[in-house]
Amino acid sequence: MMKRKWLVAGLAWVAVIAFAASKGTVARSTALKYPAHAELDGVAMGAVLLTSQEARSNFISDLNHCCLVVEVAMYPQQGQPVEVSLNDFSLRTIGTDHAVKAGSATLISGTLQKKAAASRDVVVSPSVGVGYESGAVYDPITGQPRRGGGVYTQTGVGIGIGSPGGQGGGTDADRKVMETELDEKGLPEGAVATPVAGYLYFPLAKRAKNARYELEYGLNGSKVVLRLAE
Amino acid sequence: MRKAAISFGLALALGVLQNYGFGQTPAQNSDTAASAVSGNPPNTPPDKPAQDQVRKWHVKLGPVLVGAGYSRFSGPFYYPYGFSQIDGFYRAWFWDPYWDYAVPYPSGYFAYNDGRGEVKISLDPRSVDPKLAEVYVDNAFAGTADHLKNIWLEPGVYELSVLSKNRTAYRRRIYVLSGRSLKIPATLDSVNPEKATESKR
Question: Does the residue A7 lie in any domain?
Fold first, then answer.
């Protein structure tokens, strides 16, 4: 009976490890391959802040409208699993007291859906034209028809304002897709025994110009601070 | 007088046509084609009589367009009313809401959407013939790449595969959002024919 319990527990542990490993991204060979890296209690850690362009190409969800995205990799020591939780990560703007916790996929997808549903398309369409025009016109003073003609040029600009949600991504089905994408690409949570990597989403509405950020991670009462560079 | 009547009639007809074109639901035109790809039945109810199945115009308010322009007539100037270069009839340039150029529409306004997202598959024709590249969506054959440069799919997560003989299979998990366009630059490298040829056909 006892053996069976241990077997079930072992299988559950393997399942947890396997599930955790299927999420996220592929970790680089070592933490040193990341621009920002550190080690704490035998756990190596690497991080990189994604640029707007990288966030746009790596996700179909428009994360630039709500968040800063940081790719994080954890390298636990062999045989010593580490408990990874989003609550342990926070992003701080250097030189300020402003820090935010990493947001869950559910929270971020809900924010993105709300923004997409409220956004409108504004399209500016310039136009130019050149042509020749001729024909008879009536002189309003003499009343006599006369022939005239000449080259005309035209310039114009049209401004189109679309209806709310015209950019797409504002429906409930879209929110579920975004949640799935963010969850599947996010840093796996739970106990991890092998190197894992994934994205963290920090809900900062605007990326301040020339601002620099640092990632804080708390482990066993200690804190690691990684200065991020894009 | 007769000329003025003809002019008025034509202007009225043009105006009506323009209004209908402006408010037409873009999804109506391509609904059948896209349903075939996504596997959904056409929207037409099956029990309606044939005479009721004639396509109806759905007039709705489109984007609000504000135009501004400048027109210069370099020839002799007689009066602020001149000939249109399009139809030759008199018109007041500064009073005509349609002016003399086409009303600009936002890009993609007439594209098929209807709550679906677009997936654009681009294959390098030097590496593989698109006619021989098979596209699978969720392991179901969707067609060859030459016919599927654009696929409209319901919002969701799909497994996309592009396979061709003697080529490495291209597989990618894709996330489709409504109204968004996803570009897939698929590359199928050449492999040793004795190794993997993953064609499912």
Answer: no
Answer whether residue A6 is part of any domain. Answer: no
Q: Which of A60, A131, A160 sits opposite B177 (nearest CB)?
A: A60
Q: DSSP secondary-structure letter at B75?
A: S
ipTM of the complex: 0.73
Q: Which residues of A196-226 are buried (b: 16+ CB within 10 A; e: fewer)?
A: bbbbbbbbbeeeeeeeebbbebebeeeebeb
What is the C-alpha to C-alpha distance for residues B68 and A87, in angstroms, rounded to an integer?
54
Tokens standing for B34? 């896209």
> Is B64 in Cβ contact with A154 (below 8 Å)?
no
Residue A13 maps to a domain:
no
Total beta-carbon pairs less than 8 A apart between chain A and chain B: 139
User: Which residue, among A109, A128, A137, would best test binding to B if mutated, counting the most B CBs under 10 Å from its CB?
Assistant: A137
B94-133 residues touching A, CB cutoff 8 A: 99-107, 109, 113, 115, 117
- Percent of chain A past pLDDT 70, that is, above it, reads 83
**A104: domain range?**
25-228
Token pair 């002189």 is at which residue?
Answer: A139
Percentage of residues in chain B with pLDDT exceeding 70?
39
